[in-house]
Design brief:
Helix content is 76%, strand content 1%. With 313 residues, the chain is mostly helical.
Length: 313
């Protein structure tokens, strides 16, 4: 699909988000969280291009969320807090990535999972600092120095999430088209040949890993500032599983896939929880099973296939 077509679809999607948020006010929060998770899943997409799956990226989402909770009282402006917490997550990704980028396959995934669970345990145990399972309340923040009402703040967070989604999506698309991004596919299929060409595969993966940590951090800040509450559950393995679930559901073929998957995931979860409160996980599992069986490329791949059928020969 051409860049122009993707841009048109992205703009139509943004318009649909704003329209739904205006028509159904309670969906505003759900769609903001979906956009935040879509930004985080863009990082998973980068790693999938290299053939690696991280089952512990909730670590960076939770780290940035807690940084927002601690920092909101000292840096109360969202426009400053958002990039700072993302940079902290990227710095943690660099420190951890220097270690995990040596490994591939199941070892890569399990090491990320183990480190995420260590962080989860620290959040649980240091009650005096983190309040354990009770979590921390996130103070209200300003936007460019302006304090807003509850209604205005929810709209402002939606706008921030939309801007973050557009910015991160555009950057990831450019990154994947660059030589460094193109080398990710070679890490997956021809790593030895990549090394023979003088391109260190470990550094290629490390760069993608740090960027993925930054994106997860940006998503974590938006989640924290939208929910106004953070708990250790943000670092639990189920949260990492959600991100991978969304990546599979949306499809890794394009930058719009993570946002399609996140919107479908959040809306399915909300409506399934309302209709079958005790079996909403089964509904999500059924959706994922159908996608795997009938649309291996995810929702984005399914959309591309339908568009290709309608295109004249």
């Amino acid at each position: 699909m051409s860049r122009r077509a993707e841009l048109v679809l992205a703009l139509l999607g943004a318009a649909a988000v704003v329209l739904l948020s205006w028509a159904v006010p309670w969906l505003r929060f759900v769609l903001t969280i979906a956009l935040a998770k879509g930004v985080a899943v863009l990082g998973i997409l980068l790693l999938l291009r290299a053939g690696q799956v991280s089952f512990g990226h909730a670590l960076y989402l939770a780290l940035a969320a807690y940084m927002a909770a601690f920092g909101a009282s000292r840096i109360p402006d969202t426009l400053l807090l958002l990039p700072l917490a993302g940079i902290v997550a990227a710095a943690a990704g660099l420190a951890i990535g220097l270690f995990v980028s040596r490994y591939r396959g199941i070892f890569f995934g399990m090491l990320n999972l183990a480190l995420s669970m260590v962080f989860y345990s620290l959040l649980e145990k240091f009650y005096a600092v983190t309040r354990g399972a009770d979590g921390l309340r996130v103070p209200a923040t300003t936007f460019g120095g302006a304090a807003l009402s509850a209604e205005g703040q929810s709209w402002a967070m939606l706008c921030v999430a939309l801007i973050a989604a557009f910015g991160s999506g555009a950057f990831v698309k450019v990154y994947l088209a660059s030589p460094l991004g193109s080398a990710l596919s070679a890490v997956k299929t021809r790593e030895t040949r990549l090394e023979f060409m003088g391109v260190p595969a470990r550094l290629v993966l490390l760069a993608a890993y740090v960027l993925s940590a930054f994106l997860a951090g940006i998503g974590g800040v938006i989640v924290a500032l939208s929910t106004r509450h953070v708990t250790p559950a943000l670092a639990y393995w189920t949260t990492s599983g959600e991100l991978v679930f969304i990546a599979v559901l949306g499809g890794a073929g394009g930058v719009l896939g993570p946002f399609l998957g996140a919107a479908a995931y959040e809306l399915t979860r909300v409506y399934a929880a309302a209709l079958v409160a005790e079996a909403w996980q089964m509904a999500l599992g059924a959706v994922l099973l159908l996608v795997i069986l009938f649309a291996p490329g995810g929702l984005w791949g399914m959309g591309q296939a339908l568009a290709a059928r309608r295109r004249p020969a």
